[in-house]
Amino acid sequence: MQSQSTSVVQKLKNEVLYHLDIFGQQPNFTILNRSKYPSLLGLLTSLMICALGFYFFLTEVVTMISQSKPAIYQTELSISNTEPFLLYNDNFTLAISIVNRFSEPIIGIDRYFNLNISQCERLRNINKDSGKISIDLKCTQLPIEPCNMSHFTTDIQQEYFSIIRMGGIQCINRKYQEENPLKLQGLITSNAFRYIFIQFSACHNTSLSQTCASQQEIESILESGHYNIYKSDYLTKLDRPGQPFQEFITNEFTSFSLTTSKTISQRYKILETFTDEGLIWEQISVQSNIQQSEWREISEFYNNQYLIVHYIMLDYKQTNNIRTYVKLQTILGKLGGIFQIAVMIVAIILRPIIENFMKLEMVNNLFNFSEQCRDTKVQINMTNNQQSNQQLTKRNLNRLSQSNLETWLIIFGCKQFKKQQFVFAKNKVNKNLEIVNILRKLQEIKVIKKTLLSKEQQILLKNFRYQIGQKAFLFQKKNQTENVQNIILQNDQDNLNFNPDLVPSMISQKGNFQKDFFNSCDQIQVINSLNECDIQEPSPQKLKI
């Protein structure tokens, strides 16, 4: 019972090893003492494919490093509660001017008109005990002053305002904005809602201030004109490495008069860009900016309070951009796929040609080609392993092709007679490689062994191993050059006839064969060259007893 369990475990172990070992080596046949047949055409084609693959690899690596062709995905989200988006002087431009109907600036704040810029904050608080909601609204008026070039720090701002007359343009105090940046957050329904509020109104004297001009003068100045605002906006540049956006400045304006009150709603949409900058592993960087999504005006009759109120707030939608660049493993995967496709396409064209090269080299080593027997076109060369150098040279002269050029001419049919010889010899080689013929020859050899050898001799032959000693190894190394020149391939087994009628005579010689068997097991049987004219293809016959 224990032995059976051990046998089952061992069998299971062998099966697991057999099926899970992905590096298991399969046995391979050799062709002309090599595991594959190389050719100059195949080498040149392989080098061309490798060169194209290397060129593709370089271009993809350059694209990966330069980050010029990202893969871009875009999604939109509906937002309610957001984090405050901070607006500094270097990432947001805000400047306002009031001009008359002739586009001339009206200079006279607190004399003809009032202009206020406020940061408003509306907080919604919920009492946990009572569940009541309280709303706290607070607006902080920002100090403004006439603009000069010191208010504009970026190159785009300086380039834009360098050609504009600054006299009537108002900006937020630069130092104050650096210390207290503007904030945009949430929606009107959010728990925290922050926005910018701008009010433009006609000047009115109060108990605290008596600096306004007369009513007739104010009406003549503000009879009609334009409210101009210089503001930032952003272009999306997702194909540009680094910052995925580009700032530009626009001038929006709307008309005003003392007969109407106008409300402007300006919304900015948050754009968040997630960039994977890693070459191999994921490396995410996040960049945010705002982009104008709405400019809407609503007019009504003058309400004696304001000419224009302007709200700057966030949009209810947010856009997320996801961009990724090609990674090294992706390039290698593409390269592998392209390489396989290229090899498949080229193999369809070149495989028949290279196969003919291989078959031609095989028949050159198997057969002796001459013009003495044109009817059969091929004379089989079977020589002794110890043939002299002179005989070897003569054999080389009887090869079907003597040069690479002649090989091409034969394969493509430019030499018709040698092409016919090659086709005939190739067909014979293909017959010998037929598995049915190989099994038939093995059966014939088995019949001969059972006929000529006793059971003891069959066992000895089965267990016989050729011994390679130190002397034989040294002798082989010493004469390596001479042996390479004198090696001749074994004879084509298809050219030996197995005639069952000869079996009785072979049995009569059994006694002599038994005496000489072990003395001749290390030698190769000498077979003289036979003409193809005298050889017939073997046909399977039944053994006569």
From TrEMBL:
The Gene Ontology biological process terms listed for this entry are: reciprocal meiotic recombination
Q: Which domain of life is it from?
A: Eukaryota
UniProt keyword list: Membrane, Transmembrane, Transmembrane helix
Tell me where the transmembrane regions lie.
40-58, 331-350
An annotated GO cellular component of this protein is:
nucleus
Protein's recorded name: Transmembrane protein
